[in-house]
Specification:
- It is a single chain.
- The chain is of the alpha/beta class and 805 residues long.
- The strands form ten sheets. Strands 14-29-30-31-26-27 form a six-stranded mixed β-sheet. The chain has a five-stranded mixed β-sheet with strand order 21-22-16-19-24, with no helix packed on it.
- Helix 16 packs antiparallel against helix 18 and helix 19 packs across helix 20 (464-474).
- Residues 187-210 are annotated as: Disordered.
- It holds the Pfam family tRNA-synt_1c.
- One of its GO terms (cellular component) is cytosol.
Length: 805
């Protein structure tokens, strides 16, 4: 029996514990000695799976040196995979401890739930029943009751042996269905405690450059808790040395989009997490196109993805393609077969679904069974795989499947497809390949080839982690660490490529970059600065929970960013001419107006106040009231930065009663002028130097859909379209300084957080932005043609006190 730490570490490594885990176990002498005894009972000739070693370690922590008779019953049950969860091991231990010498394998199996299968369908039904029974309480407490809900449902006797991984997944789905996405009602405002004054903002010092960094989303929460390079466990420890040699101990991440559509707002979080995390830790990030489905991929998507990454301020360390590794992937496909973990299957898609537990009626929860080709000889499968490669099969006639674990509770272990026949030319490899690897085969292996230290993805891939690690281990390659964070969803819109395509094809929107959509191309065209998106994501932080945000909250963040970074101009949507009756035709007064009050960086512009000028039609009323402060008979009004007020003398109208001209007096007085109740915008009709800028179209964008969940409309999401989602105004004018701002754009003004000062490229229409006073924030649209046909998009509205009306 091994007793020294060195001997114990060697024994632990032999069965699959990595070096770091072995060191941790050796800190407790009783546990490590018990584990050694248990391992000897297993009599393993090769490394065990990660799940088995974890269960053996759990048993050792329960035993802790205790002389437990018939303990080998538990050990054997772990080895032959009758016991697959910590709960089963714990129940088996309790039984053996109580029954001692009279323990039997049959009774232990019964006590620990061996052979009891709780399907996803059963969990769905029990959770639905529990939620229905407690519906009123859940609707009152909303998302705050989810932790208690999780604990109570786990304690249900009928779900005792259900896979622990299913509980949160099912509960989250059903609570979301009942309550809808989280909103402001679910934001818990914690009472702020007074803290002792800290010297300075917490900082982090780079291990590589020595640079001191401000705290950020990358140093806290989910991202702050991630492992350091080299700490991710390996079944084959020698591979970690090779990995660290290749990376120099730096963080290596990747952003791996499929080039079969345009990116949306949710992808901006993935881009920021992967590129930002690497940048924060002085590491590198790949842009890797996951181009394994040539039937759906188009050049325009490759171009757009790269453009959006760069627009958000990130530069890929390298741009790679999964297709770069097709030769290596094929070799590993053969190796999978050679090590007995892969086989060629000729079943139909429907037959495979049945094997994986789908019932004849299409519902889950049926008995799983093996493919009839699962045990075919290695050489036969190898030859068939080569036949697939050589084009001897048509699509659907043969697949390479992984030989995993059909008894596992995880669907990701039910013999996934690794390769399929696809007789389609590839945009980079041409007609070379007749077969293409699947995501489940490609993703983890290309991560391994590229020495990724942190494979960061969203939580819908959480179950995939098991198959990800399994495949790397059975192929004896470096195993990257996959870690999952919650995705970003925006309510009140749709992000599905299929549904957006329907909107585009039916002409409901202008295209994939319509400003009403939440594709990144659409958000960019709408005029949202890239720094505003990053700032918004930073405020949300990164956790393992899905973030469901109302569009109004996103717009509020954009508005705050624009408030700091845009100049102010006067813009009138519905102009009406005013004529000053009590001045000469040659009357002029020069007025200096700052582009941004309180901020001298942008300077001033000069505007000439003349006998004729425009105001907005909404700034005049025939009658006044106690809450109306703008122009009306008997009520003078101030014009922005003009020294004196103007007052109404008469009004001209057309035959329909529409006002065509307002005659006013300029109320110039000696001494200090009386301050008016409010000031309104104005634009001179024409001066020697310049004239108003006439806007061909001002596109006012509102929510594209009427509800928070368009997909739930009984007649389909297109029936939820807001008919007023776009209003086009053709009468707007802007003051002449518009052309000065245009010539100086992009202004790239600094923000409070330097991390989000993203420098935009010149000659881009969407970077020409300004705040139209009292109207909203606007940018130039790409449909603009020169200076004569200017088209504007409203980015977001202004927050305005209603009392000003």
């Amino acid at each position: 029996m091994s007793t020294t730490d060195e001997e114990l570490a060697t024994l632990f490594g032999k069965v699959g514990f990595d070096e770091a885990k072995s060191k941790e176990i050796l800190k407790n002498k009783k546990v490590s000695l018990s584990l050694a005894q248990i391992i000897n009972e297993v009599d393993a000739d090769e490394p065990l799976s990660k799940s088995k070693t974890a269960l053996l370690h759990n048993l050792a922590t329960l035993v802790k040196g205790e002389n437990l008779p018939k303990r080998e019953l538990i050990t054997r049950a772990i080895a032959d995979e009758r016991l697959t969860t910590n709960l089963q091991v714990s129940e088996a231990y309790k039984y053996i401890k109580e029954a001692k010498e009279s323990s039997t394998e049959k009774d232990m199996n019964a006590r620990s739930g061996v052979g009891v299968v709780i399907t996803r369908e059963q969990v769905d039904q029990e959770v639905a029943k529990y939620i229905s029974d407690h519906k009123e309480e859940i609707e009152t407490k909303r998302y705050s009751c989810v932790p208690a809900l999780l604990g109570n449902i786990k304690a249900l006797p009928q779900l005792k042996w259900a896979s622990p991984a299913l509980f949160k997944l099912v509960i989250d789905e059903q609570v979301l269905k009942l309550l809808g996405p989280k909103d402001e009602r679910d934001v818990v405002k914690k009472e702020k405690k007074k803290k002792a004054k800290q010297p300075e903002t917490a900082t982090k010092q780079s291990a590589v450059t020595g640079e001191v960094k401000q705290r950020s989303m990358f140093s806290e929460g989910f991202l702050g808790d991630l492992h350091k390079p080299g700490e991710n466990p390996q079944m084959w420890p020698e591979l970690m040395k090779e990995h660290l040699k290749a990376t120099g101990g730096r963080v290596f991440t990747r952003f791996p989009p499929e080039p079969n559509g345009y990116l949306h707002i949710g992808h901006s979080k993935a881009i920021m997490v992967n590129f930002g995390y690497a940048k924060y830790h002085d590491g590198v990030c790949y842009l890797r196109y996951d181009d394994t489905n040539p039937e759906a991929e188009e050049e325009k998507y490759f171009v757009s993805i790269k453009s959006m990454v760069e627009w958000l301020g990130f530069k890929p360390w390298k741009i790679t393609y999964s297709s770069d590794y097709f030769d290596q992937l094929y070799e590993l496909g053969e190796r999978l077969i050679q090590v007995g973990k892969g086989y060629i299957c000729h079943c139909t898609a429907q037959e495979v679904k049945l094997q994986r537990g789908m019932k004849e009626d299409g519902t889950p929860g049926g008995k799983r069974f093996a493919c009839p080709h699962r045990e075919r000889p290695v050489e036969e499968s190898l030859q068939e795989f080569r036949n697939m490669r050589d084009g001897k099969y048509q699509s659907g006639e043969a697949t390479l499947r992984m030989k995993q674990d059909l008894e596992s509770p995880s669907p990701q272990m039910w013999d996934l497809v690794a390769y399929r026949v696809l007789n389609a030319p590839h945009h980079r490899t041409g007609d070379k390949w007749k077969i293409y690897p699947t995501y489940d085969f490609t993703h983890c292996l290309v991560d391994s080839f590229e020495n990724i230290s942190h494979s960061l993805c969203t939580t819908e891939f959480q179950l995939s982690r098991e198959s990800y690690e399994w495949l790397c281990d059975v192929l004896h390659v470096y195993r990257p660490a996959q870690r999952e964070y919650g995705r970003l969803n925006i309510s009140g819109t749709i992000l599905s490529k299929r549904k957006i395509a329907k909107l585009v094809n039916e002409g409901i929107v202008r295209g994939w970059d319509d400003p009403r959509l939440f594709t990144l191309e659409g958000i960019k065209r709408r005029g949202v600065p890239p720094g505003a998106i990053l700032s918004f994501i930073n405020t949300l932080g990164v956790t393992t929970s899905t973030t469901n945000i109302q569009a109004s909250r996103f717009e509020s963040a954009v508005r705050s960013y624009l408030d700091v970074t845009t100049p102010r101009l006067m813009m009138i949507l519905d102009p009406v001419l005013c004529v000053i009756d009590n001045v000469d035709d040659t009357f002029e007064e020069e007025v200096a107006i700052p582009y941004k009050p309180g901020d001298s960086k942008l300077g001033n512009r000069s505007l000439t106040f003349t006998k004729e000028f425009y105001i907005d039609r909404s700034d005049y009323r025939d009658e006044t009231s106690k809450d109306y402060f703008r122009l009306a008979p008997g009520q003078p009004v101030g014009l922005m930065k003009v020294p004196f007020t103007v007052s109404v003398s008469s009004v001209e109208r057309d035959h329909n009663g529409e006002i065509t001209k307002i005659h006013v007096n300029y109320d110039k007085v000696e001494g200090k002028p009386k301050k008016p109740k409010t000031y309104i915008q104005w634009i001179p009709k024409c001066t020697k130097q310049n004239s108003p800028v006439h806007i061909k179209e001002t596109r006012i964008h509102n929510a594209l859909f009427n509800s928070e969940n368009p997909s739930s409309h009984p007649d389909g999401f297109t029936s939820d379209i807001n008919k007023d989602s776009e209003e086009v105004i053709t009468t707007a004018i802007v003051e002449p300084a518009f052309f000065d701002i245009k010539s100086r754009s992009p202004l790239n003004l600094p923000t409070v957080n330097e991390e989000f000062n993203i420098k935009e490229q010149p000659n881009t229409p969407e970077s020409i932005r300004y705040q139209a006073l009292r109207v909203g924030y606007f940018c130039v649209d790409k449909d603009t043609k020169g200076d004569k046909e200017i088209i504007l998009n409203r980015i977001v509205t202004l927050k305005e006190d209603s009392s000003k009306d």
